[in-house]
Design goal:
This protein is mainly α and 281 residues long. The protein has eleven helices and no strands. Helix 3 (43-63) packs across helix 4 (67-87), helix 4 packs antiparallel against helix 5 and helix 4 (67-87) packs across helix 9 (175-216). The chain starts with a helix and ends with a helix.
Length: 281
């Protein structure tokens, strides 16, 4: 077998092609949202909602509903509960999120242990991207299109809300709608990522691309584009390389993002160091 045949061998298997497609579809909306989460300081919110969807998945299994409906409902309950407790108590938001998401994740584990499920816990926590079917690809693609479309139309409003909610309210924007709309998009995107990368790995997809792009760019529009490019490249390479190193695709994707972050941090540090040396001269 030639080198070219070896390099193209993953594309000979339908499950690998499906995995590559769905990983790219998951990467696009998570990368777009990660920019807003990083700027707004909501990284823990993505973590909270990712964990909070677990009881929704289990309850949906019990009553016979699609997992996506249960996951989305649980994510919205977490977001609304966090907002309500923040507005009606003296506790800070990060503390509230820690209590809410750990409580809901614990509820999910208790429910999962109590039922006899044919769905393996690892598939919920870490995804099952190699078991993706056409229906999953269509569902993930639809979610990606909805999220990307809304952000493409309203990204300036979301940006102003992220930087200065008071100014956004002063210019006539519906701040509460933007706030809960962004939470709704996060929940929806996590639902799309659930099958591919799982609950835990979705956290990295919602944080790392935006953080990497933030280090490398100065303009928000460039940050959005670079974030998507990084996420798509890391997702594709992660699934592709997992075929050759016999690794799980989702953790390999996260390793690609981690390597990209380290590289971006090194480049930024060197750039700043050179600028400081130039100013001293």
């Amino acid at each position: 077998m030639s080198i070219l045949d070896t390099l193209l061998s993953p594309f000979q298997f339908d499950f690998m092609v499906n995995a590559l497609i769905v990983s790219v579809l998951v990467a696009m909306p998570t990368a777009l949202l990660s920019c807003f989460l990083v700027l707004k300081g909501w990284s823990l919110m993505g973590d909270a909602i990712s964990h909070a969807v677990f009881p929704g998945v289990v309850i949906a299994y019990i009553v016979g509903f699609p997992y996506s409906i249960g996951a989305f409902a649980a994510g919205m309950v977490c977001a609304l509960a966090t907002g309500f407790l923040k507005d009606n108590s003296r506790i800070k938001q990060d503390t509230i999120m820690g209590i809410v998401f750990s409580g809901m994740f614990g509820l999910g584990l208790v429910l999962y242990v109590k039922i006899q499920s044919d769905v393996h816990l690892d598939h919920i926590l870490f995804g099952d991207v190699l078991g993706i079917g056409l229906r999953d690809i269509v569902e993930t693609g639809l979610i990606a299109a909805i999220t990307a479309g809304i952000i493409g139309i309203k990204w300036r409003d979301f940006l102003l809300h992220a930087f200065d909610p008071a100014q956004a309210r002063a210019v006539g924007l519906r701040v509460n709608l933007l706030h809960y709309g962004l939470l709704c998009l996060i929940s929806l995107t996590i639902v799309g990522a659930l099958k591919a990368v799982g609950i835990i790995m979705a956290i990295a997809m919602l944080i790392a691309p935006g953080a990497i792009a933030f280090l490398l760019t100065r303009k928000f529009s460039a940050m959005l584009i670079l974030s998507v490019a990084i996420a798509v490249a890391a997702s594709f390479l992660g699934v592709y390389l997992s075929f050759f190193i016999d690794s799980a695709p989702a953790p390999t994707i996260v390793l690609m993002l981690s390597a990209a972050f380290i590289a971006a941090f090194a480049v930024t540090t060197l750039r700043v160091g050179r600028m400081e040396i130039g100013e001293e001269r």
